[in-house]
Design brief:
The structure holds two protein chains of two kinds.
Chain A: H1 23-44, H2 49-70, H3 73-76, H4 84-111, H5 113-118, H6 125-152, H7 163-187, H8 191-204, H9 212-218, H10 221-227, H11 231-244, H12 251-255, H13 262-289
Helix pairs in contact in A: 1-6, 2-4, 4-6, 4-7, 4-8, 4-11, 6-7, 7-11, 7-13
Chain B: E1 18-30, H1 37-42, E2 50-63, E3 68-73, H2 79-87, E4 94-99, E5 103-106, H3 119-129, H4 134-139, H5 141-148, H6 163-175, E6 181-184, H7 193-208, E7 212-217, H8 220-226, E8 229-234, E9 237-242, H9 244-257, E10 276-284, E11 293-295, E12 299-308, E13 312-313, E14 315-322, E15 328-333, E16 343-344, E17 349-357, E18 363-373, E19 380-384, E20 390-393, H10 417-423
Parallel strand pairs in B: 3-7, 3-8, 5-6, 6-7, 11-20
Antiparallel strand pairs in B: 1-2, 1-4, 8-9, 10-12, 12-17, 13-16, 14-15, 14-18, 18-19, 18-20
Classes of the chains: A mainly alpha, B alpha/beta.
Chain lengths: 290, 424
């Protein structure tokens, strides 16, 4: 290249990356990948959306019947279990969002191998599209939850305005995990079964079936504190408090003070940062390692 | 970006579209692939050993604006890796790549196409992938469908498309994204001949509009027909950079060259009475250089060295060139011009030569030489059997046995039927 002074050529191109300087394209990509998937599920079969809703609703049906008619969880603990059905459904819908997004994210990059190896685009669009798709579904499912809550007797409250914050908190956590898992799965294929087990554990380690009030009764304050470090527990509990009934305490109240919410938030931030760091680091080589 | 470029060379017209500066790329191939956390956990201390595979070694070249540039090489030579480095899909280990302008890549047809969606969604998605905004992609949809000739099928899901329709749609998107640089991998092999022709017509048109086109292939025909320059890679290293016919020849040489001395003679036993032996037979060009590939249209010389065991008067050398289907393409003999070749005593040696203008169609040929006494042509002395072969390389393959030079004219005939009618 003696004829051309390379110093005058400007910046050389950079290799594959997680992000891009062109945020517009990044968003369009993420949005359209998610939109197409959503469209496929929604219009792909005759019942479309109904099928989409089936999974949380069936799970809800089974748990509801079992715990209100057989195990009588709702009768046990007074005010905290008011509107037990709506609380249960709310937690299930949020957990479905968590499970769907992280579960699908695990394989997302590997399953889109064709894309990754054939075209240059910001790699992060793939796991983000998975999260975005799950958020579309969450939006629809939340409508059902609200209808159910109103039927059960809940009334609109000012605290409903907290919903975007709760969803955002959960979404950041989910995105961090999605980035982490999708990057790790390229190297470690047993991430998938491992993650399924972890999801199960998280399901029972969060206020879905058993309300926080019961947990507080049975566990020592230290264990309750640890329980509430789980970002899912914080999100679910705050959702139940803010959206369904003030009969159940807010996440801050369970922790002891609002200030202590910093701890689970810190966990979310750490997960997000680590997830991004891992993904960003492997983005350069994903196309080669597939 | 735009301001940043103001003080760089890109603003000037004669700046290359692509500059590849001493680029190297090594793949680390693990000897034993650990695919699970479990293995990693059970053997935390075992270092996974990697074998380094150098896919590209110190590749340097520049592609001018508006150039049609070919990257050729055999399988595994690194040509697709190079393209992917240029496209930003692989990072490079050493060296730098500059790219002046928007790039559209066409490494595989319809990347991101979803078979369950109709054309519009796929066009938009693919367009975004290639750098359009959704609005731009939608605005171009009509044009794209029109070029792909898919107006009647646009509401069909892609899974119901034939492979030809699929290719057409993908190609239409790729060329409608307003790129300055188009990178194409060997994807066009998919379409039928008429579509390929259409593609190349489009490429030529785009190139005239100033687009730079880089394409990877091992079809020397298209390199010769379309490229202004090409680079030949072998084991990741550039071998030749330059005119397409030079590159094409070097490529054929690489492919077939090494076989020249490997194939042992002996498919046919040597006939003859043993009065003389053809000790060696070979081909060379007019400068006396021996090649595995000879360019069409240039002089070709067949030579045979003969050692005489007894006295022979006026020996004649005949050579036939058989093609791959064992059809005889050429028979030539020294009898016509050198019928009085003279008397050779035992211990003498002679070299017989036949000079051709090489108008053979491109392909592989097998010369068989035989030595005979001139008086009785059917009285063979020795035969140098099949075992020797050479390639003819060239772009002007007409499709027949030979491609002799020709000229063409079209003349209107006066007094045709219409003239008669008008006269009446």
């Amino acid at each position: 290249m003696s004829s051309v002074d390379t110093a005058l050529l400007g910046q050389p191109i950079r290799g594959p990356r997680a992000l891009t300087d062109d945020w517009g394209r990044f968003w369009h990509l993420t949005y359209n990948i998610a939109r197409n998937e959503f469209k496929l599920r929604f219009f792909g079969s005759v019942l479309g959306y109904v099928w989409q809703l089936m999974r949380p609703l069936l799970l809800f049906g089974v748990l509801y019947v079992f715990f209100t008619k057989v195990a009588l969880v709702n009768k046990l603990h007074g005010p905290g279990n008011q509107d037990y059905g709506a609380q249960l459904l709310g937690s299930i819908v949020l957990f479905t969002f968590f499970g769907e997004a992280t579960g699908a994210a695990v394989r997302s990059v590997v399953d889109r191998e064709n894309l990754v190896r054939k075209i240059q685009f910001p790699r992060l669009a793939i796991p983000l599209a998975v999260v975005l798709l799950a958020m579309f579904n969450l939006g629809l499912n939340l409508i059902v939850v609200l209808i159910f809550a109103l039927i059960e007797g809940a009334r609109p409250m000012l605290s409903w305005l907290e919903l975007p914050l709760i969803v955002a908190f959960l979404a950041i956590f989910v995105t961090g995990i999605a980035m982490l898992l999708s990057a790790l799965f390229v190297h470690f294929r047993d991430i998938q079964p491992i993650w399924e087990v972890v999801q199960q554990i998280l399901f029972y380690a969060s206020p879905v079936i058993i309300s926080v009030d019961t947990v507080r009764e049975k566990l020592s304050p230290t264990l309750v504190h640890i329980y509430m470090l789980n970002p899912l527990a914080v999100a679910f509990q705050q959702f139940r408090h803010a959206m369904i009934t003030h009969g159940t305490p807010s996440a801050g109240a369970v922790l002891g003070s609002w200030g202590l919410l910093v701890e689970p938030m810190l966990i979310v931030v750490v997960v997000f940062v680590v997830g991004f760091w891992v993904f960003n680091r492997s983005a350069r080589l994903i196309a080669e390692n597939l | 970006m735009a301001e940043g470029r103001a003080d760089t060379l890109w603003g000037m017209a004669d700046v290359p579209s692509l500059v590849i500066d001493r680029v190297s790329k090594t793949f680390r191939v693990p000897e034993e692939r650990t695919h699970t956390l479990k293995e990693r956990a059970l053997h935390p201390l075992r270092r996974s050993r990697h074998e380094a595979f150098e896919a590209l070694k110190d590749v340097t070249f520049a592609v001018e604006r508006g150039e049609f540039f070919g990257i050729v090489g055999r399988n595994g030579s690194g040509k697709s890796t190079l393209l992917k480095c240029m496209a930003g899909i692989y990072g490079v280990d050493a060296g730098r790549i500059w790219c002046n302008g928007r790039m559209s890549t066409f490494i595989e047809l319809g990347v991101g196409f979803n078979p369950d969606l109709a054309a519009l969604d796929n066009v938009v998605m693919n367009g975004i992938m290639l750098g359009l905004s959704p609005r731009e992609a939608r605005a171009r949809y009509e044009q794209i469908i029109e070029f792909a000739e898919l107006e009647e099928f646009q509401d069909l899901k892609l899974k119901n498309y034939s492979s030809g329709m699929y290719v057409r749609l993908a190609f239409s998107v790729a060329i409608q994204v307003d790129a300055d640089i188009l990178l194409i991998d060997e994807v066009l092999a998919v379409g039928d001949a008429s579509f390929q022709q259409k593609c190349f017509d489009v490429f030529n048109q785009l190139r005239e509009e100033g687009m730079t086109i880089v394409f990877v292939t091992h079809d020397m025909g298209s390199v010769n027909r379309f490229c202004r320059r090409a680079i030949l890679l072998e084991r990741g290293e550039p071998v030749v950079l330059g005119e397409p016919d030079k590159v094409a020849e070097a490529y054929l040489e690489l492919n077939f060259g090494r076989e020249v001395h490997q194939e042992a003679d002996g498919t046919l036993s040597r006939l003859g009475d043993g009065a003389a032996r053809i000790t060696e037979a070979w081909l060379e060009d007019s400068a006396g250089q021996r090649w595995a590939v000879y360019s069409q249209g240039y002089p070709l010389v067949f030579k045979a060295r003969v050692a005489f065991e007894t006295r022979v008067d006026d020996p004649v050398l005949q050579v036939t060139f058989e093609d791959e289907s064992r059809r005889i393409a050429v028979v030539a003999t020294t009898a016509r011009e050198c019928s009085r070749s003279g008397r050779f005593e035992a211990g003498d040696e002679a070299v017989f030569a036949l000079h051709f203008d090489n108008y053979l169609s491109p392909g592989r040929y097998f010369p068989v030489a035989s030595l005979a006494r001139s008086s009785r042509a059917m009285d063979p002395i020795d035969r140098y059997p099949r075992g020797l072969h050479f390639m003819v390389g060239g772009a002007e393959a007409g499709g027949g046995y030979v491609d002799p030079p020709y000229t063409a004219t079209v003349e209107r005939v006066k007094g045709g039927l219409r003239d008669h009618v008008e006269a009446l």
